[in-house]
Amino acid sequence: MRFLPHKSRSRTLAGAFFCTLVLGTQAVLAESSEVDLLLDLLYETGKLTQEEKAVFRARLDQARAARVAATGPAPVRVSTTTAGHHDDTQRGISAPGAAIGYEPTQPLRYIDTRTQARVFRVESADGANRFGVRGRVQVDSAFANWDDNLNFASSNVGDALPTRGTVLRRARLGVLGVYDHVWEWQMEMDFRDYEVRFANVYIAYIADFGRFALGHFKEPFSLESSTSSRRLTFMERATPVEAYRPDREIGLMYETLHPDFYLAAGVFGGDGVAINRDVREGYSVALRGSFSPVRSERMFSHLGASFNYRRNDVNSNSGNYELSVCVPVREPVPLM
After folding, report:
1. How far apart are CA 60 and CA 257, in angstroms?
2. Nearest of 43, 32, 17, 107 to residue 65 by alpha carbon
3. Alpha helices per DSSP H over 274-324
4. Fewer CB under 10 Å: which end of the chain, C or N?
5. pLDDT, tens digit, for every residue of 161-194?
C-alpha cells in the first residue's frame, strides 16, 4: 500500500468531495454561492491548486446549466450572511483588469470566516457600479543614542542632537469607484506637514487592451516609485529613487493591464496644482516598460526600464528655471 503525502491526501479528498458535490442533488446546486465560497476557501488554504479549482468550477457550471435546462432557473435564496454578495465571474462578466487583481475593479466578497480590508465598499446589484472609502496612517518614531563625538560637534554649532522624535509620515483619506464596469475614478487627499494636498485625483477608462487615465497621479517611472507606500519592502524608498523620481503631476497616461508585461507612457505638466502666474509651466514625457521572464505560483521575476524627459518651469520675471518636481524647496537655477 502506498501512502500519499499529507497535501496530496488533502487534495485527493477535496477532489473526491467536489466530484460528488457537482454531480449530486439539486439541493446542493441551489446553494451555488456557498459552493463557490467553499471552493475559494479550499484554494486559499492550499487544499486545491488553481488548476484544480478551475476544473471543479467548470464541472459545477456544467451541472448548473444542465439543471436549468431540465427544470428551469433555481429560486433565489437571500440570507443575512450572503445578501449583497456579487461575483463577476459567477455572472459571466469579467471587468477589464480584474484578471490581474487591479484593485478598483475587484468585486465585493463577503466571507464569514475572515474580515477583509475592502469592507467599506458598496456596489450595485449587477456589480457595474462601485463606491468605496479608503485611507492610511503611517507614523514614524525613533530613539537614538548618538556617538559622543557627534554630540560634541553638534554642541559647538548649536543645540545637541535630539535623541527621540515622532513624525506623521502619511495620513490619507480618499474615495474611489467604478461606473459601468469601465470608468474608474479616485480622489485622495494627503494630510501631513501641517498641509493638505492632493494625492490621486483622476478619472480613467479601463479597456481590454489597457487603461487611459487623466488627472493628477504619479508619472510612470521606476518600480519602487510606482509601488504604493502600503506595499513597500522597507520603511523608506531608496535614496537614488527619492532623488530622481518625479512627483505626482497633472497629465494623460496609457498603461497596460497584463500579468506578463507592462508598458506605460504619459505626458505631464510641471507645476503641480498651485496657481503661480509668475511661472511658465514646463512639461515632461515619461515611459516605463517591464516584463516577467519567469512567473509561477512560487516565483516571480521582474525586469524593467524607465525614461523621463523634463522641461522645468521658467520664472517669467527672472528667466530662471524653477526646480518644481524632485527638489522640495523651489530654488531658482540660472539658465545655461
Report:
1. 29
2. 32
3. none
4. N
5. 788 889 888 899 999 999 999 999 999 999 987 7
Torsion of CA 102, 106, 110, 112, to 10 degrees: -20
- DSSP for 98-167, written as a single string: GGGT-GGGPPP---TTS--GGGSEEE-TTSS-EEEEEEEEEEEEEE----HHHHHHHHHHSSPPPSEEEE
Residues 292 and 300: their CA atoms lie apart, in Å, by 7
Q: Do residues 48 and 39 make contact, with C-beta atoms less than 8 angstroms apart?
A: yes
Q: Are 153 and 146 in contact (CB under 8 A)?
A: no
Indicate the domain borders of the chain: 6-71, 209-336
The answer to whether 54 touches 92, Cβ cutoff 8 Å, is: no
pTM reported for the whole predicted model: 0.59
Helix, strand or coil for residue 236?
Answer: coil
The side-by-side arrangement of strands in the sheet containing 279-280 is 279-280, 313-315, 321-322, 332-333
